[in-house]
């Protein structure tokens, strides 16, 4: 094998490694099931599951409302809105959720909104593309009718489905570096000739 042939084979191998390093990683689907949230008591401070947190943004004593294995919210008073976000602060795609109850509104940090109007039986809702690459989702229930009448609406959410993009593996980054170094070396040698 000549030196030129050996160099060409090395370059091909490095380019293949470069291509593997640049190959897109598949998104990971994460579902928040709220299993056993009720064991924390009826008003937990927050909920953490599968790399996500749910917190209340109510400034006067924030708390969540726990069902047995679901998250509950009501209008009028209390703890709303609830915020869903990743623990690491990175973005995610809000894909779908199971819901039943009254009027609800979901708002993302990007300004996307999704509303559920009227009493809903248990159903799965699929989110529009505007809820991709968001860093948080706020869920609240608007107050219906006359605010002097204590007649709150209730909503219950479960199976909050998200997609998250995995971080690049260190090995992929190293292979990318090797591929680039090989291409630069080949270009340098070609210019010398």
TrEMBL record:
Domain of life assignment: Bacteria
Keyword vocabulary terms for this entry: Signal
Ranges where the Ice-binding protein C-terminal domain occurs: 166-189
Signal peptide: 1-27
InterPro entries: Ice-binding_C
Identification of the protein by name: PEP-CTERM sorting domain-containing protein
